[in-house]
What does this fold into?
Amino acid sequence: MTELEKLNAGLEYDFWDPEVNGLKMNAVKNCAVLNALDPTDTAAREKVIRQLFGSCGASPTVLPVFNCDNGKNIHVGENFLANYNVTILDIAPVYIGDYVMIGPGTLIVTVNHPLPPSKRRRHLGQAKPVHIGNDVWIGGNCTILPGVTIGNNVVIAAGAVVTKNIPDNCVVGGVPAKWIKDIPNDITPGGGLG
It folds into this structure.
């Protein structure tokens, strides 16, 4: 298998492999283009976001400075907002639902590295996708770790580190993030406000 095939299969892979590293370098270039645009030119920014991401719903907003590992592995729904200084390390896919707001300084990570130093010296990584549901508000300076699934109608308190799956309709916070309380879902099944 090539290193890219290993990555896509969820196996350990060499992140300095030219094909794998090429994905990152392409993302670095495209993020530089996005970050250089006038923040008030929403039409130009949306065009570049649609070129950078794998898929987007209506009205995506990504404020500077934004960084990612691939771009094409990011899939966002309608009315997506990434506030200032968001980083999505999307070496594996990141699926984000509708009406998701990501606070400033947040990091979403799909890549991890082995604990034994002999493997880290060989530049090995392993990736797991991240799934984020609809109507999620991720507060500022949060970290979402590889393989995590966040349900619908979830609020993640500022500074939280999400290490495990989060169910629907709740607030979580802390390091590691833990359930704080349930919250009502006032969206009707058809998507309207209750």
